[in-house]
Amino acid sequence: MALIGFSSAAFSETNNNKTPSEVTGHKILVAFFSWGGTTKQIAENIVKHTGGTLFRIETVKPYPTEYKTCTEVAREERDKGVRPELKTVVEDMDEYDIVFVGCPVWWHTAPMAIWSFLKSDNYDFSGKTIIPFCTYEETYRDETLAKIVELTPNSKHLDGFGTIDKNADVTNWLNEIGVITVNN
Ligand SMILES: Cc1cc2nc3c(=O)[nH]c(=O)nc-3n(C[C@H](O)[C@H](O)[C@H](O)COP(=O)(O)O)c2cc1C
């Protein structure tokens, strides 16, 4: 798989005022869905190290704030294949060539809001590089990352990242997949 690294020397010596994504020439979007804040924190960390743009995937109808009720709503949506309406749109999606897509594991897979986002008529992900990430408590990390890949069949993909730790270090992973080449 092709790497998308940038030169750390060029970054430090001649591009002091530019973000990493400007230096690489890649425009990076970090789209995430988060109910409790864990995935949000990982997304913010990815932004910090890549210079990408943060985008929160939010549903028009908010999920219940009480955990058990939320799990019930989420389960019913999953079982019925409901694609909840989303609140906001990425107006300039065409400009991004790398899109991180992150979410918590919900009932062994990605929340239905991820279906809504990735299958939205507003976007064409073909040819873009999609990089999945997720947070979870115990199980179905790999299945959730794989689901994001499955939902974007015409995109390129780089290896995803899943963690149970909201403070997890993302730099090793970002280095491994070639999006950054230093701990910037
Ligand atoms: C509706 C719902 C379903 C969940 N299902 C799973 C699951 O199948 N496997 C798992 O390991 N964690 C599951 N969890 C736990 C979350 O994936 C985990 O707490 C995650 O880090 C929360 O991310 P967030 O704070 O960004 O919402 C579930 C949580 C909720 C609310």
Share of β-strand residues: 15-25%
CATH architecture: 3-Layer(aba) Sandwich
Bound molecules: flavin mononucleotide
Tell me the CATH superfamily.
Answer: Flavodoxin domain
Mean pLDDT over all positions:
90
Q: Please provide the count of β strands.
A: 6
CA distance, first residue to last residue = 23 Å
- What top-tier CATH class fits best? Alpha Beta
Describe this protein's structure.
This protein has 184 residues and is of the alpha/beta class. The protein has one domain: Rossmann fold, CATH 3.40.50.360. Helix content is 34%, strand content 15%. The N terminus is likely disordered. Bound molecules: flavin mononucleotide. The site of flavin mononucleotide has 21 residues, from helix 3 and helix 4. Flavin mononucleotide binds next to helix 3 and helix 4.
Condensed summary:
The protein is an alpha/beta fold.
